[in-house]
Amino acid sequence: MAKDAFTEEEKKQIVNAIKEAEKNTSGEIQVHLENHCKEDVMDHAAHIFKTLKMHKTELRNGVLFYMAIKDHKFAILGDAGINNKVPEHFWDDIKEHMLSHFKNGDLTAGLSEGIKMAGEQLASHFPYQKDDENELPDEISFGKN
């Protein structure tokens, strides 16, 4: 199970990165982990995005970090609201940064730093509002495979 790829402490570190990134933004970040992805990773990430109802955020500013651990695939998917605002190569830059950690076997640092980088952009385009509510859970979601 993908759930077993991380220790409890590592899962806590990733969730803390989400909470920290969301402190300064109305944007929403979610992490979904599975072992296998049998189709195109971006297509599958889009399916997970919809399944998690990430497209339902008020400002369409959700970001999904998807990873198929055993297949060594991952994707970052931003909703329309954030994609209209970030620079053209933004997601690729984050992916490259994360990949450098993944190649060294440090999935936790890669995810945590990618989340932090996304959070910084979200904060600059979607600053935290006093009446902001956390529209999506911060906990990591796991696939069945």
Structural features, described:
InterPro entries: TPM_dom. It comes from Marivirga tractuosa (strain ATCC 23168 / DSM 4126 / NBRC 15989 / NCIMB 1408 / VKM B-1430 / H-43). This is TPM domain-containing protein. The mean pLDDT is 91. The protein has helices at 8-22, 41-51, 80-83, 90-103, 107-125; strands spanning 28-34, 62-68, 73-78, 141-142. Strand 1 (28-34), helix 2 and strand 2 form a beta-alpha-beta unit. Helix 1 (8-22) packs parallel to helix 5 (107-125). The chain has a single domain, classed as Diaminopimelate Epimerase, Chain A, domain 1. It is built from five helices and four strands, in the order αβαββαααβ. A four-stranded mixed sheet has the order 3-2-1-4, with helices on both faces. 43% of the residues lie in helices and 15% in strands. With 145 residues, the protein is of the alpha/beta class.
Chart the SSEs and their pairings.
Blueprint: H1 8-22, E1 28-34, H2 41-51, E2 62-68, E3 73-78, H3 80-83, H4 90-103, H5 107-125, E4 141-142
Parallel strand pairs: 1-2, 1-4
Antiparallel strand pairs: 2-3
> Count the strands?
4
Q: Could you say what the CATH architecture is?
A: Roll
Given helix and strand content, the structural type is alpha/beta
| Main CATH class | Alpha Beta
Main sheet attributes: strand count, strand direction, barrel closure:
4 strands, mixed
Number of domains: 1
CA gyration radius, whole angstroms: 14 Å
Order of the strands making up the biggest sheet: 3-2-1-4
Give, in order, the helices and strands. Answer: HEHEEHHHE
Q: Mean of residue pLDDT?
A: 91
> What is the share of helical residues?
40-55%
Q: Provide the β-strand percentage band.
A: 15-25%
Query: What would you call the shape?
Result: globular
Number of continuous helical runs: 5
Give the terminus-to-terminus CA distance. Answer: 6 Å
Give start-end ranges of low-pLDDT stretches. none
The CATH topology is what?
A: Diaminopimelate Epimerase, Chain A, domain 1
